[in-house]
Automatic annotation (TrEMBL):
<dbReference type="Pfam" id="PF05170">
    <property type="entry name" value="AsmA"/>
</dbReference>
<dbReference type="InterPro" id="IPR052894">
    <property type="entry name" value="AsmA-related"/>
</dbReference>
<feature type="domain" description="AsmA">
    <location>
        <begin position="36"/>
        <end position="192"/>
    </location>
</feature>
<dbReference type="InterPro" id="IPR007844">
    <property type="entry name" value="AsmA"/>
</dbReference>
<dbReference type="GO" id="GO:0090313">
    <property type="term" value="P:regulation of protein targeting to membrane"/>
</dbReference>
<keyword id="KW-1133">Transmembrane helix</keyword>
<protein>
    <submittedName>
        <fullName>AsmA family protein</fullName>
    </submittedName>
</protein>
<keyword id="KW-0472">Membrane</keyword>
<keyword id="KW-0812">Transmembrane</keyword>
<dbReference type="GO" id="GO:0005886">
    <property type="term" value="C:plasma membrane"/>
</dbReference>
<feature type="transmembrane region" description="Helical">
    <location>
        <begin position="35"/>
        <end position="57"/>
    </location>
</feature>
Length: 834
């Protein structure tokens, strides 16, 4: 290794020795001396030339200044003022450089509008020396530093730029090779304003640097313009605000001018506006009477960055939305600088696998092509009212539900209206993840929907969506938490029309019950949002067999939550409608069971209003007879209050009393009585766990039992032992058992009780208690009524009913037991007791 390094080092040392010898040689010193003389001579020549030009300027300053003034004044109609005029020694060689200090340029009407066209601390002008020596002014470069340029156009069409006189068209004979041109322009720290009051346009730029070198081809020219500026205003309509406000713009523009077309074309790639890059192609028409322009912008940019580049009337709306990833955008702007209002704006964007935030939530896996135009209907101008957003090939997931929309249109951005057709196909359990209210839980099921929709957008929120189309749900199983309802394997078909929501046949299974349902909701789309409490759901329900107690939970009250002042979610809106709507049910059931009651051929009209169950025109067959009834059932905590009116016709009284657990009566059992009951009741009470709460009933009862019998009925047995010890009071048949009573909890006001039997006749009135407090007056004829039933007519029976000796007894409470004693009813006392 060492030997290898030594072999490389020896040649290098020899090379350095040869270079040293060359630099110390007489030949090198001779040439170095001559080169030094050349450089000194060149510097001396430059100094002499500069000095000569300075002497020339000082001797001809007045003439040069006069010629510059003449050149400028020949081309303007206004006032041109120069504070001072200086020569800049050695600057811009080989050109002759002069500096115009404190320059002002004003048009003839400056005193009216007060806008100075040009005001600058310094304009540096570089003149061609050869032309200058020939007494001609040829400007090849202008540098403007620390200046203000204000281009103003009044409402009447006058512009302070009219200060420049139009050039006379040159003929070949008058064309001169020495005609003045400006080959290069350099601006530094220039504040530029274009204020067009006709079109309400305001462009305001703080130009840090602008550099342009122009190549001429006859009257045509082209240049690359480097621009570094801060945008104060880029307002095509000052009413709506500025584009790219307070953004830095930096880049190079390729600019060409065609004299024949009187048009400027501009192109730039990678132009920086803020932190984003843009490719721009533009044109500006300069023909007299025409100020048409067009700007096309392409970029890949974040949504928020793009929104912040737009005017306030657009960005204020777009800032309520956001796309997480960058999007490809193309914006095309075309208009007339002299026209009022906005230019035509068309924005196109491509979105792929993005996340779209909207005021109503978040859309994931989002794909679409979007178009914005402010000229949706070509003949109706450029305005928010004629603006539209059109999305095509839209697909996304909203709350895990996949959505596809072939085309979505949002028209009139003053009062936005969205229309389109949405399709979706998904498994229902995916909705559980986004159900923050936790009011329904799906365990299985599949849904497909095809809906034509229309909805308003108010304050950028979706409002009152309206649908026409179909929703098909298959094999859905769910738990409706507020009502503790479980459903399994249900198929649902919904049809939305302009007039109604039609629910096709639903097979609802719960435990051993199956219910077939179809229905209709008229005016659904209006009432659902504005007045769900007025929405009436018309159901047709058919039940082969149903256990009523298993469905009591439908009426359970939901726990009330605090009122949320924010806009309700779609889930909250649906739950609110379910809880507030009125449900009208036309019920038919082959078999109904309730506790021990079994009924057939049941029909009823049922309403569910604010958790109340209202049954109207109910009818059923049970216990060998029929019952017509109307009932209201209302939840009260864990209990239910009921109010009922019923007409019972010829039912077997024993079975009937057993079905209702003897209505809580302990003093006798259903086995004590037989016969066919006919009654009319109007009462209220309370139910707990499907059972009548003892002593909770209040109301009136009129009843009659025909073909009846009393078997071991304790009150009669006690009376019989006291008054008729030799008659069979344990087995009594009767031709008439009727009464008129008022129920007051555990007390019954017996207004009239009539018993016409095979053992005795009895009339009773007073108070009967299921507990304590019985006080009844009994009227009992002593005659044997055994053969009264053989009399042909009721009139005949009534005529002989009270003949003979009549006993007046009292049945009173004695320590919780009934005691029979002699006496008549004390009307005053009883009245007081009542």
């Amino acid at each position: 290794m060492l030997s290898l390094m030594l072999r490389k080092f020896v040649p290098m040392t020899a090379t350095l020795h040869r270079i040293k010898n060359f630099l110390q040689s007489a030949g090198f010193k001779k040439y170095a001396k001559r080169f030094g003389y050349f450089v000194l001579g060149l510097v001396a020549l430059v100094l002499i030339a500069g000095a000569g030009l300075s002497i020339y300027f000082n001797r001809n300053k007045t003439e040069i200044m006069a010629k510059i003034n003449t050149k400028i004044n020949d081309n303007i109609n206004g006032d041109f003022h120069i504070g001072d005029f200086q020569y800049k020694f050695l600057t811009g060689l080989p050109n002759f450089t002069v500096a115009l200090k404190d320059v002002e340029l004003k048009d003839k009407q400056w005193k009216t509008h007060k806008h100075t066209l040009l005001k600058t601390k310094e304009i540096e002008v570089r003149l061609n020396v050869w032309s200058l020596l020939q007494k001609e002014i040829n400007i090849h470069k202008i540098l403007i530093n620390d200046a203000q340029i204000y281009l103003y156009k009044a409402e009447n069409g006058y512009s302070n730029s009219d200060i420049f006189k139009p050039k006379k068209k040159k003929t070949p004979e008058t064309q001169s090779d020495s005609e003045t041109t400006i080959d290069e322009i350099d601006l530094n720290n220039v504040h530029f304003i274009l204020d067009n009051r006709i079109g309400h346009k305001l462009f305001d730029f703080d130009v840090a640097s602008l550099k342009s070198k122009v190549d001429y081809d006859g009257d045509d020219w082209k240049t690359d313009v480097f621009l570094d500026t801060q945008i104060g205003s880029l307002a095509f309509n000052t009413v709506h605000g500025s584009f790219a406000k307070q953004k830095r713009l930096k880049g190079t523009f390729a600019v060409t001018y065609s004299a024949e077309r009187e048009k400027i074309d501009v192109k730039t790639e990678g132009l920086k506006i803020g932190s984003d890059s843009f490719d721009i192609v533009a044109f500006f028409n300069l023909a007299k009477g025409s100020a048409l322009f067009g700007i096309n912008i392409s970029t890949t940019i974040l949504w928020q960055n793009a929104s912040n580049l737009l005017s306030a009337n657009i960005s204020s709306k777009l800032n309520h939305f956001n796309l997480k990833k960058e999007i490809d955008v193309n914006c095309d702007i075309k208009g007339d600088f002299n026209a009022e209002g906005d230019p035509r704006i068309v924005v196109q964007a491509e979105v792929h696998n993005n996340e779209l935030s909207i005021p109503d939530g978040l859309l994931t896996d989002c794909n679409f092509k979007g178009i914005f135009t402010n000229n949706f209907k070509p003949k109706e101008g450029f305005s928010d009212a004629n603006s539209a957003v059109i999305l095509t090939r839209f697909s996304a997931k909203y709350r895990n539900v996949p959505l596809k929309i072939a085309q979505l249109s949002i028209n009139n951005l003053e009062k936005p209206l969205a229309t389109g057709v949405v399709n979706s196909d998904f498994d229902l359990p995916v909705m559980n993840e986004e159900n923050t209210e936790k009011w329904i839980h799906f365990t299985e099921g599949h849904a497909t929907l095809n809906l034509k929709f229309q909805f308003d957008i108010v304050n950028l929120y979706i409002t009152k969506p309206r649908f026409i189309g179909n929703v098909d749900v298959k094999n859905v199983s769910f738990h409706f938490i507020p009502k503790n309802i479980h459903a399994e394997k249900i198929n649902v078909k919904l049809q939305f029309t302009q007039e109604a929501l039609i629910i096709n046949k639903i097979a609802y299974k719960n435990k051993n019950n199956t219910i077939f349902i179809d229905g209709k909701i008229n005016n659904f789309l209006n009432l659902y949002y504005d007045a769900p409490e007025k929405m009436v759901v018309n159901w047709n329900i058919y039940c082969p067999s149903i256990d009523v107690r298993q469905f009591m939970g439908v009426l359970a009250t939901s726990q009330k939550k605090k009122v949320n002042t924010k806009k309700p979610s779609m889930s909250q809106q649906l739950r609110n409608a379910i809880e507030k709507c009125v449900v009208d049910i036309n019920l038919k059931a082959d078999k109904i069971t309730y506790n021990k009651l079994t009924a057939t051929n049941t029909k009823a009209v049922i309403q569910m209003i604010d958790s109340r169950l209202v049954i109207k025109n109910g009818s059923l067959q049970t216990c060998g007879g029929s019952i017509n009834f109307s009932t209201t059932l209302s939840p009260n905590g864990k209990n239910y209050n009921f109010a009922s009116n019923a007409q019972v016709n010829q039912v077997d009284i024993t079975q009937f009393l057993k079905s209702f657990n003897n209505f809580g009566i302990k003093s006798f059992t259903p086995n004590n009585i037989r016969g066919q009951l006919t009654s009319n009741t109007d009462m209220t009470g309370m139910i707990h766990n499907g059972e009548l709460v003892p002593n909770s009933t209040h109301g009136s009862l009129n009843f009659k039992v025909s073909h009846g019998a009393l078997i071991n009925f304790e009150p009669i047995v006690k009376i019989g032992k006291f008054a008729f010890p030799f008659r069979d009071v344990k087995n009594i048949t009767f031709s008439d058992l009727s009464g008129n009573c008022k129920l007051r909890g555990e007390l019954v006001d017996v207004n009239k009780l009539t018993i016409s039997s095979s053992v005795l006749n009895l009339d009773a009135e007073g108070i009967y208690s299921f507990g304590r407090g019985t006080n009844m007056a009994l009227t009992i004829p002593l005659r044997n009524s055994k053969d009264d039933a053989k009399l042909a007519t009721k009139a005949e029976r009534d005529a002989v009913r009270d003949r003979g000796i009549v006993l007046h007894l009292l049945a009173v409470d004695d320590g919780g037991k009934m005691k029979i004693k002699w006496g008549k009813k004390d009307k005053g006392k009883n009245k007081k007791e009542k």
